[in-house]
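Deviations from the work plan: none for this task. Representative record:
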Amino acid sequence: MRHSILLAGCLLLATLTSALAQSSGVTADQVWARATPGGAKTAAVYMTLSNKGGGDDRLVAVTTPAAGAAEVHTMTTENGVMRMRPAGPLDVKAGGSVVLKPGGLHVMLMDLKAPLVAGQRFPLSLTFEKAGKIDVTATVEKAGAMGPGGSMPGMPNMPGMKMNGSGG
Amino acid sequence: MRFRSPLYAAEIAVVVCLLAIAATAAWWGTKPGKPEPAVAMPAIGGPFTLTAADGQQVTDRTYRGKIMLVYFGYTDCPDACPTALNEIAGALADLGPRADRVQALFITVDPQRDTPEVLANYVKSFDPRILGLTGTPEQIAAAAKAYRVYYAPYKSADAPDGYLMDHTSVVYVMNEEGRFVATFTQETPAAQMADRLGKLLAKTS
């Protein structure tokens, strides 16, 4: 009995939380970061932003207690040359989604307060032009991981297993 | 700070064309063990003198007899370099004991920040067998020139020390005699790298 009340409570809370997130229209899911290789002072955070609201929105700022600065960067590879640039405000169109993943967009954390260790979780605040501030939690994956709960360095890869994003 | 002056887009295009020609030439090229014919093949790779983590000077000749994987990057690079090193680490793991005949090198394009200690600490997070190499700005420039690698700082106010690095993100595969045989991108999956390396190793075993 006590369990079912607890369960019902959890469900209600989950529904409310989800409703709150829905009301702003913008959600951030699958928020993950790469563990920092030894000594690295920067890290990348990836996520999927979805806009289920009626109007376009844009991500204007990212802050986290884990780093002194956080900035959305885009990475392009042209003729084999990799260039990383601040992406500026990131448009998330009504009904659309934007995927931040290796080889494309990422939130670059700079001036890290401490190394990011696989398995850790840390908070981030995403500020949208219309939806305002959304607090999310990032899960730290292994250094060089290609996705949340994805490939692990040094682990033999199964043939045919696709773990790479298409990039760009 | 001294950096190599940026190439123009046209020059990059030429380099890519040369790379493609070289790759094709290498693919259709001579049997292993037989000396390369004296044709005007664009040379990818060449002499370099750099410093390893233990302070030891190494050159391109240090790793003769092994297949070299050569990747240029820097440790403040959060996306491309960890991806490439992760895939290289995965390929070494896939190769098992055959990885003893492969030497992966991570050559920094940011010698100001990437000291031998910084590099050693960084690469061991992926695989302790990957060697981080640095040098004087002139030595790095010479190594990059040998591999037709482009690199240049990009000023960015929030970035560490106010700059990011643009750089060629290509894994060069050099055979046991130090000759260029293939390239991988930073996104070539580990299994695919291991497969290609396995075939190259099988030719000479």
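The beta strands of chain B are 49-51, 57-59, 67-73, 102-108, 131-133, 151-155, 163-168, 170-174, 180-185.
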